[in-house]
Amino acid sequence: MTPDYASPHPVVSNQRRVVLALLHALRPHLRGDRSLPTRIESLIKADRRFGSRDRRLYRELLYTAVRYLPWIEGRTDDEAIGLIGHLAAELPATHGFRAAFGAGPLPDGLDPDELLPAWLRAECPAAFEPAVRTALCARAPLWLRLQVDDPAPVAAEFASLGWTYTPSPLRPDAWAVDGDRDLTRTDAFAHGLIEVQDLGSQLILDTLALEPGGHWLDACAGAGGKTLQLARLLGPAGRVTAHDVRPGALAELEVRAHRAGLRSIVISRTAPTGLFDGVLVDAPCSGTGTWRRSPHLKWNTTPEHVARSARLQTELLRRFSERVHPGGRLIYATCSLCRSENEAIVAAFLADRPEFTLEPPAQTFGFPPGPHGLAILPGRHDTDGFFVASMRRA
Ligand SMILES: C[S@@+](CC[C@H](N)C(=O)[O-])C[C@H]1O[C@@H](n2cnc3c(N)ncnc32)[C@H](O)[C@@H]1O
């Protein structure tokens, strides 16, 4: 039966009531809680009556409220529901709710600049350009990276599931999968044929024009998003030593490497020693480039967080640069938009260590390379925001 949206159907009326109750429960935490996603998950999972489609709906509606928080706060229930319905992404799970509550126009006087914290302007003026700001505030697409040369089995499985996708014109191995899909439940994932990885993250290594072979150190490997890609690019003749201070992340990396059949990855749980042909420092950062995936961070990241990250980045870049072989490469990357975590870190490092020189990126994807590295901004290619600088030791 088609719901009569003129007088909302009981199903969407109930959804309205639930989302208002969830928002009410979250209200004290919306601006201050850096673990908000965990709180949202436990709140949604606490209600045993919700099926997976309900959870998808409420997750999306709550994330919409967080993304557009300054526009939602202080509104009446009707206004808040109308805005959330209008601004939520169109997904199978949100379709009825959007049709029932989001059909009206947006109210006058909404200021898009309010959707980013004002302090970001000094760190990244480009984030306030309409295309970049819109992308940084929208729902992130789901990108996968193919880990096999032949995509046919993955395409066949997706076709059997009725899933659609679009390969990136920048790298055919990167597919944007439509809808709200759980890739981890596919055979392709179980057999290591695909990994979830934002396109921007994939482009970082494409700026380096890597040759097969060589021994690299991935010094801040985390759970190995870039380690796996690096190992594939270096091929069977190459080797990657992956290090991180989080043993749990390295354990996950080990599972992923095994799933992908990548035997050239060696895990180093202790501080790496020796010299490498290349060192990747994918540094811990404020994560300002990933705000469309973690919108709560917009409201509780401060200039002090950025300054603290910059101090750690300076230290890690200096420390791991010691591991670069003469003639070898040092790559510094972040998922931050902030100058003080990106260009300023590289500029200070190069001033201090004249034996390292900056090398131009092999590809720029339409972004102007700066004097200290390349910023990949959200918007142009539907990516998160990243920064990469490639240096070579004399
Ligand atoms: C941006 S994340 C890495 C993401 C990962 N390279 C990927 O592509 O998925 C930064 C990583 O730096 C790690 N880290 C923080 N301090 C570190 C240190 N002193 N030495 C090595 N890694 C560190 C963090 O645990 C985190 O996993």
Question: Which descriptors would you attach to this protein?
Answer:
394 residues, alpha/beta, Alpha-Beta Plaits, Rossmann fold, eight-stranded mixed sheet, 16 helices, 12 strands, 40% helix, globular, binds S-adenosylmethionine
CATH topology of the largest domain: Rossmann fold
The CATH class assignment of the largest domain is Alpha Beta
**Helix count, DSSP H or I runs of 4 or more residues:** 16
What oligomeric state is this?
A: single chain
Number of strand segments: 12
* Gyration radius, rounded: 22 Å
- Strand/helix succession: HHHHHHHHEHEEHEHEHEHEEHHEHEEE
Give the distinct bound molecules: S-adenosylmethionine
Helical coverage, percent range: 25-40%
Ends distance: 72 Å
Structural class: alpha/beta
Corresponding CATH superfamily of the largest domain: Vaccinia Virus protein VP39
Average pLDDT: 96
Number of domains as seen in the coordinates? 3
Q: Tell me about the biggest sheet? A: 8 strands, mixed
Low-confidence parts lasting 5 or more residues at pLDDT below 50?
1-6
Beta-strand percentage range: 15-25%
Q: What would you call the shape?
A: globular
Q: Which CATH-level-2 architecture of the largest domain?
A: 3-Layer(aba) Sandwich
Description of the structure:
This protein has 394 residues and is an alpha/beta fold. It has three domains: 10-110, no CATH class; 142-196, Sun protein, domain 3 (Alpha-Beta Plaits), CATH 3.30.70.1170; 200-393, Rossmann fold (3-Layer(aba) Sandwich), CATH 3.40.50. Helices cover 40% and strands 16% of the residues. The chain is built from 16 helices and twelve strands. The protein has helices at 10-26, 36-46, 52-67, 69-72, 77-87, 95-101, 120-123, 130-137, 152-161, 187-190, 199-206, 225-234, 247-259, 297-300, 303-321, 343-352, and strands at residues 142-146, 165-167, 174-177, 194-196, 214-218, 238-243, 265-268, 276-282, 324-334, 356-359, 374-376, 386-393. Strands 5, 6, 7, 8, 9, 10, 11 and 12 form an eight-stranded mixed beta sheet that branches. Helix 1 (10-26) packs across helix 3 (52-67), helix 3 (52-67) packs across helix 5 and helix 15 runs parallel beside helix 16 (343-352). The termini are far apart. The model is unreliable at 1-6 (pLDDT under 50). S-adenosylmethionine (SAM) binds at residues 201, 219-223, 225-226, 243-246, 249, 282, 284, 316, 335. S-adenosylmethionine is lined by residues 201, 219-223, 225-226, 243-246, 249, 282, 284, 316, 335.
